Amino acid sequence: MALSVQPLQPDFAGEVSGVDLTRPLSTDEVAAIEAGMDRYTVLVFHDQHLTDEQQMAFTRNFGAIETARGGNVTKPGEQRLPQGMNDVSNLGQDNRPLARDDRRRLFNLGNQLWHSDSSFRAVPAKYSILSCRLPANRGGNTEFADMRAAWDTLDPATKAEVEGLICEHSLIYSRGTLGFTDLTDEEKAQFRPVRQSLVRTHPVSGRRSLYLASHIGTIVGWPRPEAMAFIRELAEHATQPGFVYVHRWRQWDLVMWDNRQTMHRVRRFDDREPRDMRRTTVAGDAPTAEQVAA
Fold first, then answer.
1. 176-185 long-range CB contacts below 8 Å, 24 or more apart?
2. What is the value of pTM for the model shown?
3. Does a structural domain hold residue 289?
C-alpha cells in the first residue's frame, strides 16, 4: 500500500498510512512526508514500533538532529536516553516515576504550557518527532494550535502592529510563571534570553504564522507589562478551540509537527504512573532575528 495522508482536522492535522518507519524510507516517501508537513504541519503515524536508533534514523531524513544542551535541568550522568533523544517522560534512570519534589519533574511541568520547541535557542527547531512508548492511563493528551490560522484571522490593524516585532524567549520566563525560579548560575547562563520574530513566513508555502510560546518574556522596545498583556491576548486568540487539534495517545503512536507553525502543550496526567515519551528534534537552519549580547 502506498503512503497516503488523510485529514484528521482540515488543513492542520493529517493521519499517515502505508509506511513503516522502522525501515529506511525511499526518496519518494520522504518527499511525501515533507509535502504532508507543508500542508498540515501535524502528522500522525500509528503502530510504529520504533527503537531509539530507528527513530533517530527516521529523523535524519529531514535534517540534522538537534543535540545542544540547555533545554532542561537534567545533570550530566542523569540521562536515561542516548544522545539525540529528548526524554519528555516522567521517568528517572531506573524507569520509575520521578519523586513529586524532584526538580526535574517540577521543571518539566512547563511542558503543560503552550510552547514551541526550542524557541529559546537562537536557531529554533524545525520539526519535532514524538514517539509514545507508554501512554498515561488517564490524561496526558497533547494539544496543537495552528499558528497559521491564528495569523490569518487577526484583524488588519493587529497584523500591522505585530509585523516586525521581536520577542525575547527563555526557559527562565516560562518556568518562572510556574514559580520555578531555583536555577543555578550555570542554568541561568544556559537559559539566557534569545530574540525571535513574532511573525514567521514558511519557506515553501509562503504562509504567515504567529510565533508564540510561553517562553516569551517581553517584546523588545516595549514596557514589559504592556508586552506581556499583548502576548497573552495573542495567545488566547491563537489557542481558541477551532484552531486546536487534540491528540489522544495510543502506544506506538508517532506524531511529527512543524515548530515554525504550531504551538503545543501536554495536558495534566497522573504522573505517579509511568508515561514514556521520546522526542527527536530536527534542527533549524537559521535564526529568525538578529541576536544581541544578553
1. 177/113, 177/214, 178/106, 178/109, 178/110, 178/113, 180/103, 180/106, 180/107, 180/109, 180/110, 182/103, 183/73
2. 0.97
3. no
